[in-house]
Amino acid sequence: MDTERLAVIEAGLGRAAEALGDITAPVMAEFYDRFPDARASFAHHMPDNPASLEAEMVGNTLYYVMTWFEKPIDARIAFDSSVPHHRVALAVPPDWYRGFIEAFLDVVEPAAVASTADRAVWQTLREALVGLVERNRLV
Fold first, then answer.
1. Long-range pairs for 87-93: beta carbons < 8 A, 24 or more residues apart
2. Three-state SS for 126?
3. What mean pLDDT is predicted for residues 68-83?
4. What is the mean pLDDT of residues 72-79?
5. How much is the pLDDT for 89?
6. According to the model, what pLDDT value does residue 57 have?
7. Which residues fall within 8 angstroms of residue 1, CB to CB, at 6 or more apart?
8. Could you give the CA distance from residue 82 to residue 133 in angstroms, rounded to a whole number?
9. What is the DSSP code string of 13-47?
10. pTM higher than 0.90 for the full model?
């Protein structure tokens, strides 16, 4: 476990929570801005309540952000099964996974980062999570 970087992420998430409140709407707006076709996919996969699926995706991403430096194996296992499954079974391209992570971080990171050292930790986290998508792109 990387306690120093975990502490940076936890402190940053605390700052972001205070500054932003519920991040679901801004993350989804950023994501849909980049991937407008994804809105129809969310509605297709959860027709009765796409907002529930949106909140679940934000929550899942938050979980991986919160735990990456504590137990990265959880994210590796999840991404190794989820990215290929969603690509094949649900026609969700890996670029949407990557884009979702990036949209999440682009919303949260500015409020979370308090120093240059913090920025480096957040960049390491970004590279790690995006890297999980990239390694599963063609699986």
1. 90/41, 90/45, 91/41, 92/41
2. helix
3. 92
4. 92
5. 81
6. 94
7. 69, 70, 71
8. 10
9. HHHHHHHHS--HHHHHHHHHHH-THHHHHHHHHST
10. yes
The one-letter amino acid at 114: A
Query: Quick one: tokens of 104?
Result: 């999440």
Question: Domain residues of the chain, as ranges?
Answer: 3-135
CATH 1.10.490, domain 3-135, yes or no: yes
Q: What is the 3-state secondary structure (H, E, C) of 58-117?
A: HHHHHHHHHHCCCCHHHHHHHHHHHHHHHHHHHCCCHHHHHHHHHHHHHHHHHHHCCCHH
Region 124-137: mean pLDDT is 91
Q: What are 109's two structure tokens?
A: 């990171």
Tell me whether residue 61 is exposed, middle or buried, using C-beta atoms within 10 angstroms of its C-beta: 0 to 12, 13 to 18, 19 or more: buried
The answer, yes or no, to whether residue 25 has pLDDT greater than 70, is yes
Residue-level pLDDT at 84: 85
**Owner of token pair 């519920």:** 22
Q: Tokens 């979980």 belong to which residue?
A: 63
